[in-house]
Amino acid sequence: MTNSVKDEYAQNDTAASDGESGPNDERGSDAAHVEATNATTALRASNISRSFGDVSVFSNLSFGVERGEVFSLVGPNGSGKSTLLEVLAGVRRTSTGSVTVSQREDGVREVGYLPQRPSFRDGFTARDTLDFYARFLDGVGDDEVTETLERVGLSGVADRSVGSLSGGMTRLLGLGQAVLGDPAVLVLDEPGSGLDPAMVERLFGIVGELAQSGSAVVVASHELPAIETYADTVAVLDGGEFVARGTPESLLSQAEADTLPDAFLRLVGAEAGSVTVRADATSREATR
């Protein structure tokens, strides 16, 4: 494999999101402090902040994510979700604070990361792509690649070129590369973006299964009906801070709402501007 191809694949970990994060030139090993432990907390963020020059994206956030938990991050476009996920995934440094990841005893990887816009080399097949990533993970070989293709529902198109895959299949392939090696923490940025409702349901079903297998999942998504179904904890990021955090049921109660989309609009103050949330197969515009 040439260095140019290797570099192209490495760029997946720092793929541009939706304009929330600015130029990404800060990949480094000090983005997340990793230590092995038997504790049930898979990820711990302690007073983390991130700024670009004089612009603060978020400040003094502290939270933990347990093994087997689906922790969902929601917020208006531009609220800093993608930047926060990059910090949690270790592809961007914090300005202050620290992130600690506890390794799984049965895994060989600390963090698996799916950027918002995964891209892969067109000349590779789906299997070639996962084979490529597997080379960088100790003890992950052909059997694990085959198992992962089955796990994300791509075994039937394993030998199809990446360039011929649909958008939904490309997302599933991105999920596949993120779960190779059974990471302690999965960080997923808008995994359902651009997918039809059936594919969104399928993808979040896989996410739920991965959590049940022992991984902690941190997912940012506007697919609020799916979040309401699959998330254990929902954190609403707005104005650089969590304006609400708790179970989906507790957020409904706090906002005095019947559905999570309605609760979201109330919690971020829908009268002050414009936000978009996805409810089932439709998008809803609200003045915020």
Task: Give a written overview of the molecule.
- It comes from Halogeometricum borinquense.
- InterPro entries: AAA+_ATPase (IPR003593), ABC_transporter-like_ATP-bd (IPR003439), P-loop_NTPase (IPR027417).
- The structure is a single chain.
- Strand 2 (41-52) and strand 3 (55-66) form a beta hairpin.
- The model is unreliable at 1-38, 271-278 and 281-288 (pLDDT under 50).
- The protein folds into 2 domains: 41-110 and 184-271, Rossmann fold (3-Layer(aba) Sandwich); 125-182.
- It has 288 residues and is an alpha/beta fold.
- The chain has 9 helices and 12 strands.
- The protein has helices at 3-10, 81-89, 126-134, 142-151, 167-179, 197-212, 224-230, 248-255, 260-267; strands spanning 33-36, 41-52, 55-66, 70-74, 96-103, 111-114, 185-189, 216-220, 233-238, 241-246, 274-279, 282-287.
- The protein starts with a helix and ends with a strand.
- It is 31% helix and 27% strand.
- Tell me the count of domains: 2
- What does the overall shape look like? globular
Q: Structural class of the secondary structure composition?
A: alpha/beta
**Strand order within the widest beta sheet:** 6-7-8-4-9-10
Q: Please count the helical segments.
A: 9
Q: How many individual β-strands?
A: 12
Looking at CATH, the homologous superfamily of the largest domain is P-loop containing nucleotide triphosphate hydrolases
Task: Determine the mean pLDDT.
Answer: 82
* Radius of gyration based on Cα positions: 18 Å
The helix-strand sequence is HEEEEHEEHHHEHEHEEHHEE
The parts where pLDDT drops under 50 for at least 5 residues are 1-38, 271-278, 281-288
Sketch the major β-sheet: 6 strands, mixed
**The CATH topology of the largest domain:** Rossmann fold
Cα distance, first to last residue?
50 Å
Q: State the CATH class of the largest domain.
A: Alpha Beta
Percent of residues in helices comes to: 25-40%
Q: What's the assembly state of these chains? A: single chain
CATH architecture level-2 label of the largest domain: 3-Layer(aba) Sandwich
- Proportion of strand residues: 25-35%
